[in-house]
Design goal:
With about 120 residues, the chain is mostly helical. The chain contains five helices and two strands; from the N terminus they run αβαβααα. It has two domains: about 70 residues, Nitrogenase molybdenum iron protein domain (Rossmann fold), CATH 3.40.50.1980; about 40 residues, no CATH class. Helix content is about 35%, strand content about 5%. The longest helix is centred in the last third of the chain and has 17 residues. The protein is elongated, with a radius of gyration of 23 Å.
Length: about 120
């Protein structure tokens, strides 16, 4: 168990990105509202993590090994294949195309830049 000054707790939690964290205190929201990286947060003195595991209905399959920095608990979306569909009309591409070229060049991806540039009316 790590003990830190209360005001530093959210930053510490975010750095650790734990599977779960408990704020066993009065007004736990004052800290939990500042946490961005935890699999589950349990609020108050009478909300142990076991409540989430067995009866609360919250997710029991949570990210471990600091994965809460970039991953949520297991959900139905982990079992669904999704496909993004993107479509620009000429007006939209006229606005987005030059920005696409600039960003691709900045990233050092000349072929990506060219794929947009050749579609611009100016060909630039």
């Amino acid at each position: 168990m790590i003990i830190a000054p209360l005001d530093e707790s959210p930053a510490l939690v975010d750095a650790i990105a734990p599977e779960h964290v408990e704020f066993a205190m009065d007004n736990p929201e004052q800290l939990s509202d500042r946490v961005r990286h935890a699999g589950a947060i349990f609020l108050g003195r009478v909300t142990p993590e076991a409540i989430g595991d067995y009866v609360a209905g919250s997710n029991h399959v949570l990210p471990t090994s600091r994965a809460a920095r970039f991953q949520s608990g297991l959900s139905i979306y982990d079992f669904i294949k999704r496909t993004s569909i993107v479509k620009c009309d000429a007006a939209a591409f006229g606005i987005l195309g030059p920005h696409t070229v600039a960003l691709a060049k900045a990233e050092g991806l000349p072929a990506h830049a060219l794929s947009a540039a050749i579609r611009l009316p100016s060909g630039a």
